[in-house]
Amino acid sequence: MQQLSLFYDVKSKKVPIRNQFSHNRVCAEDARIALEERYTLLFEETDKFNRQLVSFQANKTEVLHSWMKYREGFSANLVELLLKELGIESGDNILDPFSGSATTLLVAKMLGVDAVGIELLPHCHLAWEAKSKAFDYDVNELRYIRSLIEQTIPPEADRKFPHLTITETAFPPEVEKDLMAYTQWFETLDISQNAKTLCRLILMSLLEDVSYTRKDGQYLRWDSRAEKIRSNNAKRLAQGKKAIKGIHKGDLPHLKEVLLEKLNRIIIDVTKLQRDRLSPSHQKLIAGNTLYTLPTLPENSFSAVITSPPYANRYDYTRTYALELAYLGVKEEIFNLRQSQLSCTVENKSKASELETFYRSIGQHQRFQQILAVAQKNRALAEINNALTIRDKRGEVNNRGILTMIDQYFTELTFVFAELYRICRQGAGIVFVNDNVRYAGEVIPVDTLSTNLAEQVGFTPYKIYVLPQRKGNSSQQMGKFGREALRKSITVWRKL
User: What are phi and psi of 181, to 5 degrees?
Assistant: First the structure.
């Protein structure tokens, strides 16, 4: 691994520090201001970054990475840029503990770099399984499958779409029948297992397109034509209430049409990718919860970490991706998946007791207590927790779960940071992409607080890169507390 030397050759400027975190200064903010002042020399706004790079937007037209839309992920271009600037070379081993659709692993594969990812959600594992085989597919076999789709009407399936309660009536009846017909047909075709996996990914990736739903952060938005909405509105009108106005997605595409379109795109991508030979390397995506997986990894194993954890924005991935999870047969496990996520929703319950039991089981109870103490003694986190409690007593918090969510979010991240310090090699660069947030008029500086917690477990803060474009607030926040531009940051730390 080469020397870490990020972005000194690009146009950049210092970022004005924030001097107010509590709307109308209702709550104490000294600790947050102190963090702002402590890390002010680290702040840098650089033209190397924009919102497209740190989101899925730049992946929409990318070879391979566009096969499944994962709007919470970052772009392949960002990973390439960071790997280059971190000096990562063949022979290094990198980690993404919140792997999502495995962009980091796929870029590492393309560059001949070893990589490990950790991911909880099953649909992300299907995406990795199918995309990581891009260099192994038989293009002629894929063309054969395309010709079969063009010429064949698959027989009606003998099973129904395995809906969750929240996905019922998501599809027009004929679309749902087609989905299951193609699913069962692909399973019975005389094609390779790799090709079957790819066909399953393609169908899963099209679910939103052919449904009456649209992903919208915390939940699915519904088209007013869905039976669920029409039935609910009939009840509301009978009760003298106003009907719920749903979205209107326009004419939904035919499944066969988008299926062929997606397969054609993949055939073009695979043909392009297979023109070049890959350097030998190894990537692995581990299924599980990062909080319990990191402590099992050997120390001094990784040259760098590039990741973006779930943001503290109340988004519930098990609801956002409910169609995909339902399609894969996730039913009884959905609650456990929801609770196993990093605490980023108001429904997450504390993991402290389970974590303590786990650390005790691996003979690391004292380490658990030490890490927990770092979070519990952090002045800024205590100030934020107290501020939200005051706001709640004033009736300004719209969901009391926000209080526990924020405390648990940073406590759990402290465990992640501490384990990353243990398993990273000396000289490793650690990169986290995250957003600052605001609740009940209280700005929560995720970037400086995370940096402070990382420093307390051993890392040396290096840079806090700030995107030129700031993030806005929800309309509810603006209505009560005015507009605040919040930083979207890339924090960089080192293990010296």
Answer: -65, -50
Question: 42 lies in a domain?
Answer: yes
Domain containing 62 equals: 12-135+278-494
CB atoms within 10 A of CB 147: 9
User: In this structure, are residues 405 and 312 in contact, taking their beta carbons and an 8 Å threshold?
Assistant: yes
In a domain, 156, yes or no: no
In a domain, 143, yes or no: no
| pLDDT (tens digit per residue) in 67-106 | 998 877 788 999 999 999 899 999 899 999 999 999 999 9
The C-alpha R_g of the chain, in whole angstroms, comes to: 24
Cβ of 89: how many Cβ atoms within 10 Å? 14
62, two tokens: 């990318």
Residue 287 falls inside a structural domain:
yes
Tokens 């000396």 label which residue? 426
Residues 72/56, Cβ–Cβ less than 8 Å: yes
Q: Give the span between the Cα atoms of 260 and 254, in whole angstroms.
A: 10
Beta-sheet strands, E only, within 292-418: 302-307
CATH code of the domain in which 67 resides: 3.40.50.150
pTM for the structure as a whole: 0.94
Helices (H), 274-299: 290-293
Per-residue burial over 340-358, b if 16 or more Cβ lie within 10 Å, else e, is bbbbbbbbbeebeeebeeb
Structural domains of the chain, count? 1
Q: How far apart are CA 218 and CA 324, in angstroms?
A: 15
